[in-house]
């Protein structure tokens, strides 16, 4: 199987890519929306050719990849007692290579499908049922796993896993669920939520388990079981709380990953102007999200980095972008990074703006000021 891994992987990417494109275009049959069975120019060898490799180099690369896969299979067969470790390490390396270098087109298209779904009117009942059912499943599975683990360390645990689950569910499932309800976890639009709202949801799960543990303590007769009780609820909270939060943060994660893909590679088939952003504050966050998700005319921008006069930020990553230097270094940064457009995003004084204009006057770069405009539409007489 590993010997045919490269062509098999290419076929999987092709089916994934073309299926997602059909979803993006509503199943239309126009040229930019090929069906699953129609050829395109996004196979592995096409991508390598577009990166500047020659035909012989591309062939050599694909042969080398096949050789590595075969070598992994042979090592797993020879060292049978270490096969699992070899396969896990090989899988992690392959997953990194795929996500970082090979599946960019598919990941970007999949992210656009998700964002296209987010732009549709919210179906309140469907969303509510999804989170309700998802939380019940997460809490149930977490309880099931913990009970299975505790059977190996607790001699007093029921022999039947089903019996143990039914006995524990009234406290260990319904109380955390009730606390989630009390925290209004099902009345939020999660892909527009703040970090504090995600944290509050995780805290609600932990608080629910803390209440359940307290009720157990009220009826506990043997204090020697205290350690086992603490381990039981620590395992529950450690599994269920992150899972509940991640179900809500998944769409935000897709947004951020697509945002990163757009910034690093631009939109497919579009020559993206290389852009510097003057600013590294909250307005910059809004600007970066807007150009990626809300205003199609800005989607072609390829943001190279940020510029800020806060020396503590220089060289660090802010909003997923590196702060390249200070405002006084703009001419050098424009030349060094071949910048086409400079956006003034954070507020600057009239003197600072005039200074930036003078600095960039000798260059051919475009200078654009991005503002949040407040317009009064109705005034009380």
Estimate percent helicity: 55-70%
Overall SS class: alpha/beta
Terminal CA distance reads 78 Å
Tell me about the biggest sheet? Answer: 6 strands, mixed
Low-confidence stretches: 27-31
User: How much β-strand is present in the residues?
Assistant: 5-15%
Mean pLDDT: 82
Radius of gyration: 27 Å
Strand order in the sheet with the most strands: 3-4-2-1-5-6
Summed up, the domain count is 3
Query: How many helices?
Result: 13
Order of helices and strands: HHHHHHHHHHEHEEEHEHE
Number of strands: 6
- Morphology: extended
Key terms:
13 helices, six-stranded mixed sheet, 6 strands, alpha/beta, 3 domains, single chain, Rossmann fold, 381 residues
If you had to describe this structure to a student in words, what would you say it looks like?
This protein is α/β, with parallel strands linked by helices. It folds into 3 domains: 2-118, no CATH class; 124-259, no CATH class; 270-369, Rossmann fold, CATH 3.40.50.720. The protein is built from 13 helices and 6 strands. A 6-stranded mixed β-sheet has the order 3-4-2-1-5-6. Strand 1 (274-278), helix 11 (282-293) and strand 2 form a beta-alpha-beta unit. The longest helix is centred in the middle third of the chain and has 40 residues, at 226-265. The radius of gyration is 27 Å and the shape is extended. The N and C termini lie far apart (78 Å). Mean pLDDT is 82; it is low at 27-31.
């Amino acid at each position: 199987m590993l010997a045919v891994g490269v062509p098999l992987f290419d076929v999987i990417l092709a089916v994934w890519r073309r299926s997602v494109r059909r979803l993006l275009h509503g199943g239309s049959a126009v040229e930019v929306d090929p069906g699953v069975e129609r050829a395109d120019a996004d196979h592995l060898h096409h991508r390598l050719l577009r990166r500047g490799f020659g035909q012989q180099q591309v062939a050599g690369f694909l042969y080398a990849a096949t050789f590595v896969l075969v070598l992994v299979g042979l090592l797993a067969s020879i060292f049978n007692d270490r096969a699992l470790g070899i396969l896990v390490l090989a899988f992690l390396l392959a997953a990194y290579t795929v996500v970082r270098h090979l599946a960019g087109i598919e990941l970007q298209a999949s992210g656009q499908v998700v964002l296209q779904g987010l732009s549709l009117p919210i179906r309140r009942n469907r969303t509510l049922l999804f989170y309700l059912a998802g939380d019940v499943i997460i809490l149930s599975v977490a309880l099931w796993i913990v009970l299975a683990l505790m059977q190996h360390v607790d001699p007093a645990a029921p022999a039947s896993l089903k019996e143990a689950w039914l006995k524990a569910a009234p406290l260990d499932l319904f109380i955390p669920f009730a606390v989630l309800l009390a925290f209004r976890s099902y009345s939020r639009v999660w892909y527009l939520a703040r970090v504090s709202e995600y944290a509050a949801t995780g805290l609600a799960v932990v608080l629910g388990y803390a209440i359940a543990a307290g009720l157990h303590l009220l009826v506990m007769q043997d204090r020697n079981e205290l350690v086992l009780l603490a381990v039981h609820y620590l395992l529950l909270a450690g599994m269920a709380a992150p899972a509940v939060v991640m179900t809500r943060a998944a769409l935000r994660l897709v947004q951020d990953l697509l945002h990163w893909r757009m910034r690093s590679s631009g939109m497919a088939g579009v020559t993206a102007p290389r852009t510097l952003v003057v600013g590294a504050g909250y307005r910059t966050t809004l600007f970066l999200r807007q150009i990626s998700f809300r205003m199609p005319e800005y989607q072609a921008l390829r943001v190279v980095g940020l510029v800020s006069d806060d020396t503590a930020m220089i060289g660090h990553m802010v909003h997923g972008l590196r702060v390249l230097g200070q405002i006084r270094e703009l001419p050098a940064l424009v030349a060094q990074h071949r910048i086409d457009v400079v956006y003034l995003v954070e507020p600057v004084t009239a003197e600072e703006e005039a200074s930036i204009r003078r600095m960039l006057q000798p260059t051919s770069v475009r200078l654009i000021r991005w503002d949040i405009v407040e317009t009064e539409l109705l005034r009380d007489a």
